[in-house]
């Protein structure tokens, strides 16, 4: 069954068509990748899914519910969680505190009650702390937990951002260029964590990424975009063999990936 169904999305800004005729589905536990050259419309799709932009046409259903018109925080509270191309963490706060902020959707009680540890607020605080500890274990962040995020190596900061998204206990995870700017070792580490998210946590994901090796290794299916339109959706093998894709986008990269 599809977790997410996107049908016929069109998004334009004052005559500039960012996305047109985009339809796709993401299944349970599926890792769905969106690729395409700069300006192809990938980030715009994420912005439509997370409620930042409202498309002029089309529909988005998440677990059977229409999302169009909902504000970003409402969509997040339904279980759609996102990481960003440029890290969006509080650099002066520690790893633990940044992860706790990822729990805000699960917080009903105010900071004062939590501080005073009153009744249900205390139970909630304990539950949130325990969820954050699970994320720290899962992403092997123990040694960094008390460091301000801004002092950490870049690859670890990206991992903390994934952690913040996981702390929300998402039902769908949107990863916007999770390995951008990483060296080979950091990329391999991140690839392993992404696979663990799918295999151990069973969370479906949509990944926008320029690293073709990573996409072709990890994704179950890939949608290739060009000038705002999808030109092919299929398995990595199908996409890499498609003459339109090779012509429009992969070119030399395809041959080096395939060889
Ligand atoms: N807020 C906006 N106002 C006007 N035009 C926009 C806006 N956001 C995106 N666009 C345009 O929409 C098109 C698609 O942009 P988008 O950022 O979605 O592409 P992308 O595939 O994510 O690119 P990249 O790989 O560089 O991140 C581009 O022509 C871009 O200039």
From TrEMBL:
**Keyword line:** ATP-binding, Nucleotide-binding, Transport
Could you tell me which SMART domains the record lists for this protein? AAA
Supply the Gene3D superfamilies for this chain: P-loop containing nucleotide triphosphate hydrolases (3.40.50.300)
Cited Pfam families: ABC_tran, BCA_ABC_TP_C
Q: Where is the ABC transporter domain?
A: 4-252
GO terms for CC?
A: plasma membrane
The protein's matches in InterPro entries, at most eight in alphabetical order, are given as: AAA+_ATPase (IPR003593), ABC_AA/LPS_Transport (IPR051120), ABC_transporter-like_ATP-bd (IPR003439), BCA_ABC_TP_C (IPR032823), P-loop_NTPase (IPR027417)
Any one GO MF annotation of this record: ATP hydrolysis activity
Which protein are we looking at? Answer: ABC transporter
| Source organism | Lentzea aerocolonigenes
């Amino acid at each position: 069954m599809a977790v997410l169904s996107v049908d016929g999305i069109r998004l334009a800004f004052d005559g500039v068509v960012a996305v047109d005729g985009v339809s796709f589905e993401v299944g349970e536990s599926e890792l769905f990748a969106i690729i395409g050259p700069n300006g192809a419309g990938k980030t715009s799709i994420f912005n439509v899914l997370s409620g930042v932009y409202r498309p002029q046409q089309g529909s988005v259903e998440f677990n059977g519910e229409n999302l169009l018109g909902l504000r970003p925080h409402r969509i997040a509270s339904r279980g759609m969680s996102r990481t960003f191309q440029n890290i969006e963490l509080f650099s002066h706060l520690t790893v633990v505190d940044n992860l706790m902020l990822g729990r805000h959707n699960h917080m009903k009680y105010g900071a004062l009650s939590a501080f005073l540890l009153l009744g249900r607020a205390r139970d909630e605080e304990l539950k949130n702390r325990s969820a954050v500890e699970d994320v720290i274990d899962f992403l092997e962040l123990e040694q960094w937990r008390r460091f301000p995020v801004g002092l950490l190596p870049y690859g670890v900061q990206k991992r903390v951002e994934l952690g913040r998204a996981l702390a929300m206990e998402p039902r769908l995870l949107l990863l916007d260029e999770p390995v951008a700017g990483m060296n080979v070792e950091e990329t391999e580490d991140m690839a392993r964590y992404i696979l663990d998210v799918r295999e151990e946590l069973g969370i479906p994901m949509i990944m926008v990424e320029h690293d073709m090796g990573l996409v072709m290794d990890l994704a179950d299916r890939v949608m290739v975009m060009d000038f705002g339109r999808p030109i092919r959706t299929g398995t990595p093998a199908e996409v890499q063999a498609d003459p339109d894709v090779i012509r429009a986008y992969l070119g030399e990269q395809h041959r080096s990936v395939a060889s």
